[in-house]
Every structure is written in structure tokens, then in C-alpha cells.
Amino acid sequence: MNLKLGKVESYIHEKLEKGKLHFVLLDPDDIGPEMAGKIAEMSEEVGVDAIMIGGSTGAEGDVLDSVVRAIKESSSLPVILFPGSHGGINKYADAIFFMSLLNSRNPFFITGAQALGAFQVKRYRIEPIPMAYLIIEPGETVGWVGDAKPIPRHKPKIAAAYALAGQYLGMRLVYLEAGSGAPEPVPPEMIAVVKKVIDVPLIVGGGIRSGEQAKTAVKAGADIIVTGTAIEKANSLEEAKEKLEELNRGIKG
Ligand SMILES: CC(C)=CCC/C(C)=C/CC/C(C)=C/CC/C(C)=C/COP(=O)(O)OP(=O)(O)O
Ligand SMILES: O=P(O)(O)OC[C@@H](O)CO
Ligand SMILES: [Mg+2]
After folding, report:
1. Which atom of ligand 2 is closest in space to residue 54's alpha carbon?
2. 2 in a structural domain
3. Which residues bind sn-glycerol 1-phosphate (predicted)?
């Protein structure tokens, strides 16, 4: 039995020794390969730590393929898949968040998609990183698609119980997700309570669109901040770069 961590997971842990991390999520359903390549290149310049690729609707097949390849060609950042189902697996990526949506009502999102994708991950030698994925209110599209029972925003203990259960099930990351484009990010009180009970790194995303909000989440205890919409919604590459810099300063100080 080989208990050694893979390359990308080791990279994450080494970087976490020095500070908090910023991952940028690109959705192939919203952004073409050319733009994705440019944003990945800029992200690397600005000091982002990894690119995540995924979406809850339509990030599959040729569309996914061309975006992953464009990103690999234009930056040396690790590319981590963030799949909505087994259809979100792609052979050009370095790693995959092999996640289980623990508070889904539908077993497809807890173990079904994972079983359907497992052999592809093995065949393509993509590094799987086991992750507990928890949907917090409002949950947005991913909450609806993933058939989640979203955790109430004012019930941090429920989130903490799921997070600890995930750790005890062997998951090596916990992700608190308010939903892409959520009007408000996960409350800092909830981040703090979850962080206190788990030993694995804590990822927080959904609705973080300012440096100030990113800073608040980090101060509360988030180890890794994920941002997507704020960068995708920028009106120009210059604006996207400024946003990346602002978010990165909020996270890294
Ligand atoms: C590990 C494998 C093979 C599958 C996991 C399958 C699971 C558990 C999926 C969880 C539910 C789900 C639909 C997740 C999607 C993740 C995701 C990419 C969310 C947010 O992305 P955006 O694309 O920015 O949001 P929109 O879809 O709203 O645009
Ligand atoms: O698009 P935003 O709101 O930044 O959310 C990022 C990520 O948590 C979505 O899965
Ligand atoms: Mg999207």
C-alpha cells in the first residue's frame, strides 16, 4: 500500500506551510480556450497557486478538452479538475478533486459519479485528491444540480459535523461552498467553527468577489480561497488582472 501523497497534493501542503492559497476556478461552459489561457497566464503572474476547471452544467467533452489544453499550454500552474459528474474528467489535467457531496440527497453525487469516473482517473493517471464537498445556503446552481440539502448559514455546527465526518471517512480536504455567484460568501462564523474541529486544509468558495471578503474568510480560518465569477465577469483583461491582484492581496496580505 502506497500512502505517499501525489505531486499536486504535496505542492498544496508545502505551500500551505508558508501561507494561504488562492485557486482560480474557470468554467469551460462560460469561457473559451483563448480567454482561459490568458487568465491562467495572468493568474500565474499575479501569484495564484492553482487553476481549477469545472462547472455544474456542460463542462464536458471537446469544450472541456480545449480549455484544459489551452491552460496547460499557457501556464505552469497545476490544473485541478472540479467535476460536476464523471463527465468532467479530462486526461490533460494534473489532478482531480475526487469529491463527494456529503450533504446531497442523491447517492449519485455521494458515490455514484465517483464509481463511474474511477477507472478513467486510473487510466489517465490523474492524481485523485479525496475531498468532502459541502453545500452551504444558498448553494446556487450547484446546490440545485447536486440535489443538496443546503446547510443553513446560521448553523455552523452542522457544517462542522459534516466536515469532521468527511475527515474521518478519509477525505483530505474540506470545501465549504456557498455556490458560484452567491450573493454572500460562507459566513466567517461558520468558517471558524469548522476550522476548529478539523485537521485537514479548509477550502472556501462561492460569492467571494472582493479582497476584503477574501481577507475575512482567511482571517476566520480558510486555508484556500476559490474565486471564479469575479474574474470571469471582468469586462476586460486589464480589469481581470486588477481583480486577481485585489483578491490575491486579500488572501496573502
Ligand atoms: C469525483 C467525480 C468523478 C465526480 C464528483 C461529482 C460531484 C460530487 C459533484 C458535486 C455536484 C456538482 C454539480 C458540482 C459542480 C462543481 C462546480 C464546478 C461548481 C461551480 O462551478 P460553476 O460552473 O462556476 O458554477 P455554475 O455551474 O453555476 O456556473
Ligand atoms: O464563482 P464564485 O462565486 O467565485 O465561486 C467559486 C466556487 O466556489 C464555485 O464553485
Ligand atoms: Mg460557472
Report:
1. 10
2. no
3. 175-181, 206-207, 228-229
Residue 132, domain member (yes or no): yes
**Which residues form the domain of 156?**
7-252
**Average pLDDT rounded to a whole number, residues 184-190:** 98
Question: Which residues carry a binding-site annotation?
Answer: 27, 56, 175-181, 206-207, 228-229
Give pLDDT, residue 118. Answer: 98
CATH code for the domain in which residue 51 is found: 3.20.20.390
% of the chain at pLDDT higher than 70: 100
Q: What pLDDT does residue 12 have?
A: 98
Label each residue of the chain as H, E or C: CCCCCCHHHHHHHHHHHHCCEEEEEECCCCCCHHHHHHHHHHHHHHCCCEEEECCCCCCCHHHHHHHHHHHHHHCCCCEEECCCCHHHCCCCCCEEEEEEECCECCHHHHHHHHHHHHHHHHHCCCEEEEEEEEEECCCHHHHHHCCECCECCCCHHHHHHHHHHHHHCCCCEEEEECCCCCCCCCCHHHHHHHHHHCCCCEEEECCCCCHHHHHHHHHHCCCEEEECHHHHCCCCHHHHHHHHHHHHHHHHC
Q: What is the mean pLDDT of residues 201-206?
A: 98
Q: Domain count of the chain?
A: 1
